[in-house]
Design brief:
By secondary structure, the protein is an alpha/beta fold. The protein has 20 helices and 23 strands. It has 4 domains: about 220 residues, Rossmann fold, CATH 3.40.50.970; about 110 residues, Rossmann fold (3-Layer(aba) Sandwich), CATH 3.40.50.920; about 170 residues, Rossmann fold (3-Layer(aba) Sandwich); about 55 residues, Alpha-Beta Plaits, CATH 3.30.70.20. A 7-stranded mixed sheet has the order 3-2-4-5-7-6-12, sandwiched between helices. Strands 9-11-10-13-14 form a 5-stranded mixed sheet, sandwiched between helices. The protein is globular.
Length: about 625
């Protein structure tokens, strides 16, 4: 055993390895990605680790291994759970043999997601146990418990950390040994084949299991009630840490820490409600605990007032923070509070509780709001942009130039290229979820016959959730142009490999699946590859391909700047430059800036892609020394 300062995701990974995980499958998604990557990095070869094509594939790969008795871990973010729902909603009925933990990292904020989605609802929907850690150290222990409970009940279980648990750091005492638990092997049995009658019977058994789980979890070591008094706080996850930071070791307030949102530990909840007159629910995302404690009080006729998100007393969107929780606690307790361990140099906060308990929705302080004279000023807004030299900029700009003056729909997707929506490119009309760019383009094409319809998708997303969209377009005779932005990596989530890169997470070389061959195999007759950094040729390619009928595709192929060496940097010839600012207006590259009223290229940012050179109307941009662009 050794003490190490590690990230929450690393703690979960080490906990899974200690628990004997045999197979790990997932799809990259912030804030979950580092769990799988940590296991791969520390793998001695006894654990099969893979980035699957998508979450659905990962769930199915892991489910089969669990049927064979292996302990398996599936990793994803909350949006990926939607993709994995199909197999998961059957696995819960069929059950598993080896322990199966579905790690779904929720993203309050949302910081890097389309929506704020609360996995605890999905746990209730799927009738699955859900573990909710409040710290990295607790997560290390809890994932080991999750495997035990999964095998005890023969069911997959959820592990639901949120962003601050995933990416927070803590000193954790870990066992670095890999205790791989070998699979007992698959045993042929009719129970693995899901038929309607079997599902009906299994549903009855699953409901019985839930009753046993609920009683079991009343005594679970991370579910606990502390303190006493007429005021109580029910909390979970990082919300519990914020409450403890503010209240310290106060014993005059009853605190119910819930580590298992589903099934809700109702027996322990009754113990918590004894003698309590008012309860405040502190939790991230939705009012799951708030509704559960309200239901428990009503069911057992316990008179108590419950406050939280439903009453507007706690923020009902976004991440929690110490300041937000402090504001809610102040109004709930009618006291002035400061964190029990104030930050260095932080002054005591004045009385911010002069109003009675009331809805706070729309009134809660946000990060950067002033609660004391020592607060720093708000940081300037800095919207995300495509990196300098990003080949996606060239692809978007080529399509924009080629389709200028034509009625066109541009359907985007999830990835770095979502940033093509920003000015001056303005090339993403829709963005719903992974793979939806291709299918939404078809919807436009079917109902607006006088428009050109483009569907953009990245190479990794193409394998994750684009294939079915291509098949659908071909089958239903859609008139669309598919644009694959192939930068040879999964860039947005940390440059992970995918089926098109020719290497696996086990560091093995494998066959690189060619998107062009896949498209042709699915029935796309016209497939053209272009270099997005060759602007003139790319524009001509788009003009030609877009005029063809039916489904056609352009693959813009150029590596991400993070996995390749930069080209010679570009400079502006001050004598030739007429300060028209065309390069700024057209491209929006972060490397091209105004300094003292003049257009300059920041040497530290330039990647030498040459797009600015291609758009300059007077040829004022080139290599150092006045060399022309090759």
């Amino acid at each position: 055993m050794s003490k190490r300062l590690i990230m929450g995701n690393e703690a979960i990974a080490f906990g899974a390895m200690k628990a004997g995980v045999r197979l790990v499958a997932g799809y990259p998604g912030t804030p979950s990605s580092e769990v799988l990557e940590t296991i791969a990095k520390n793998n001695d070869g006894s654990i099969h680790v893979e980035w699957s094509a998508n979450e659905k594939a990962a769930m199915e790969v892991a489910g089969a291994a669990a049927y064979a008795g292996a302990r398996v871990l599936v990793t994803m973010k909350q949006m990926g759970l939607n993709v994995a729902a199909d197999p998961l909603m059957c696995l819960n009925y069929v059950g598993v043999k080896g322990g199966m933990v579905v790690l779904t990292a929720d993203d309050p904020g949302p910081i890097s997601s389309q929506t704020e989605q609360d996995t605890r609802h999905f746990a209730q929907f799927a009738k699955m146990m859900a573990f909710d850690p409040s710290s990295p150290a607790e997560a290390y222990e809890m994932v080991q418990d999750a495997f035990e409970y999964s095998e005890k009940y023969g069911e997959p279980v959820f592990m639901r950390p949120t962003t601050r648990i995933c990416h927070g750091y803590q000193t954790v005492e870990i066992d670095g040994e890999i205790n791989t638990k070998e699979a007992e092997g698959f045993e042929k049995d009719p129970k693995w084949v899901i038929f309607p009658k079997l599902s009906y019977n299994n549903h009855i058994e699953l409901e019985k299991k839930l009753i046993g789980m609920q009683k079991d979890l009343d005594g679970y070591r991370f579910n606990r009630v502390t303190g006493s008094g007429t005021k109580g706080i029910i909390c979970s996850g990082v919300g519990y840490e914020y409450v403890k930071e503010i209240l310290g070791d106060r014993e005059d307030i009853k605190i119910f820490k819930v580590a298992t949102a589903n099934p809700f530990p109702e027996g322990l909840a009754q113990e918590f409600l004894e003698g309590v007159e008012e309860v405040l629910a502190v939790e991230e995302l939705d009012p799951v605990l708030e509704k559960a404690i309200t239901y428990t009080a009503g069911k057992h006729q316990i008179p108590v007032k419950v406050y939280g998100k439903l009453t507007g007393t706690v923020a009902n969107a976004g991440e929690l923070s110490t300041d937000l929780v402090k504001e809610s606690l102040c109004q709930f307790l009618g006291e002035t509070l400061s964190p029990s361990i104030p930050a260095a140099g932080e002054a005591n906060v004045g009385n911010i509780c002069d109003t009675p308990l009331s809805p706070l929705r729309g009134q809660l302080p946000r990060r950067g709001s002033q609660v004391s004279e020592l607060q720093p000023p708000e940081l300037p807004e800095r919207p995300p942009v495509l990196c300098p030299g990003c080949p996606h900029r060239g692809a978007f700009y080529a399509v924009k130039l080629a389709m200028k003056g034509k009625k066109t729909r541009y359907c985007g997707d999830i990835g770095c290229y979502t940033l093509g929506n920003a000015a001056p490119l303005d090339m993403v009309d829709t963005c719903l979820c992974m793979g939806a760019g291709l299918t939404m383009a078809q919807g436009f094409a079917h109902v607006e016959e006088d428009v050109y319809s483009f569907g953009f998708i990245g190479d990794s997303t193409f394998f994750a959730s684009g294939l079915h969209g291509v098949a659908n377009a071909v089958y239903n005779n859609a008139n669309i142009t598919i644009v694959i932005l192939d930068n040879s990596t999964t860039a947005m989530t940390g440059h992970q490999p995918h089926p098109g890169t020719g290497r696996t997470m086990m560091k093995e070389f494998t066959a690189a699946i060619d998107p062009e061959m896949v498209l042709k195999g699915l029935g796309v007759k016209t497939v053209v590859t272009a270099d997005p950094l060759d602007l003139k040729a790319s524009v001509e390619t788009v003009k030609r391909v877009a005029e063809e009928d039916g489904v056609k595709a352009i693959i813009f192929k150029s590596p991400c700047i993070a996995i390749t060496k930069p080209a010679p940097k570009k400079v502006i010839n001050e004598e030739t430059c007429i300060q028209c600012r065309t390069c700024i207006r057209e491209l929006g590259c972060p490397a091209i800036v105004l300094r003292e009223g003049k257009v300059v290229i920041e040497e530290a940012l330039c990647f030498g892609c040459g797009l600015c050179e291609a758009v300059c109307p007077v040829g004022a941009i080139g290599k150092p020394g006045g060399e022309d662009h090759e």
